[in-house]
Design goal:
With about 270 residues, the chain is of the alpha/beta class. It has a single domain, classed as Glycerol-3-phosphate (1)-acyltransferase. The protein contains nine helices and ten strands. A hairpin with a 4-residue loop joins strand 1 and strand 2.
Length: about 270
């Protein structure tokens, strides 16, 4: 309980100080003369411990539940703790368009990859159980790797074409059996904040499984935690869910054409 109270106090302090300096997601600046890089370094000294403490609290609760409760029934709990971790990281999450998705249908969810926080953002905004994907190394990490495996996530080995093919075949079978799948066609987090090239594999998967595609545009996560910077910059993240793209809409497209089409949709979402 003491640790929990300490986390809340530290988060409140971080948010208060951050809003005194800059709401970077809105482009508003205060007249303060405090050096922002130095300030965000101080803020990050607070946020990193709160992030790890909130993650370990989450793991302490979620791991035993995953041992006894089916994954699909874990969604409300997973969503709550995703919001908890994001809040502990200084993220003000805004979701737009959740009502466009029918939770009883099967989809391939496609999103742009901005930050390591994207996994939590996705679980927080999705309105149905979705089998996630992730780089193979994540499944070897302590605690997080165990959670990924128990959730039923699919490891993708980017450097091994044969292994990657098997992963996509597994994803295809999951889709054909009626469960949705999530994947980032960029394959890795952005280094400069710009959306990378979309690989064709996920769109070949959608074509083969004949399922609708749900595009998600994530905006602001890169600014909060850049891959090349240890510091956090608390602020707003907007996750916009687009209209599902049904198979009849892309029936005449190749995987390459579909990848460009979906990328253009997401690009417009995050402008």
């Amino acid at each position: 309980m003491i640790y929990f109270i300490a986390i809340i106090i530290l988060i409140i302090i971080a948010w208060y100080l951050t809003h005194k300096i800059e709401l970077h997601s809105e482009g508003k600046y205060s007249p303060t003369t405090i050096d922002r890089p130095f300030f965000y370094g101080l803020i990050s000294i607070i946020i990193w411990p709160t992030f790890f403490i909130s993650f370990f609290i989450t793991a302490t609760v979620v791991i035993p539940l995953l041992m006894v409760i089916p994954q699909k029934r874990m969604l409300p709990i997973a969503r709550f703790f995703s919001y908890f971790i994001l809040f502990s990281s200084g993220v003000h999450l805004i979701n737009i368009g959740r009502e466009k998705v029918n939770p009883d249908e099967t989809y391939l969810w496609i999103f742009n990859h901005q930050s390591f926080l994207d996994s939590f953002i996705f679980v927080a905004v999705a309105n149905q159980f979705v089998v996630t994907t992730g780089a193979a190394y994540q499944f070897k990490l302590p605690i997080w790797g165990f959670i990924m495996r128990r959730w039923g996530a699919i490891p993708i080995e980017r450097s091994n074409i044969r292994q990657a093919y098997r992963s996509f075949q597994k994803a295809k079978n999951i889709l054909l059996n009626g469960s949705s799948v999530q994947i980032s066609p960029e394959g890795k987090r952005t280094l400069d904040g710009k959306m990378g090239k979309f690989k064709n594999g996920p769109f070949r998967l959608a074509i083969d499984a004949n399922v609708p595609i749900v595009p998600i545009g994530i905006k602001g996560a890169y600014e909060i935690k850049k891959r090349t910077d240890w510091r956090f910059r608390p602020g707003r993240v907007t996750a916009t869910i687009g209209d599902p793209i049904h198979p009849q809409e892309y029936a005449e497209m190749s995987a390459k054409e579909l990848s460009l089409y979906v990328r253009d949709i997401i690009k417009k979402m995050i402008k």
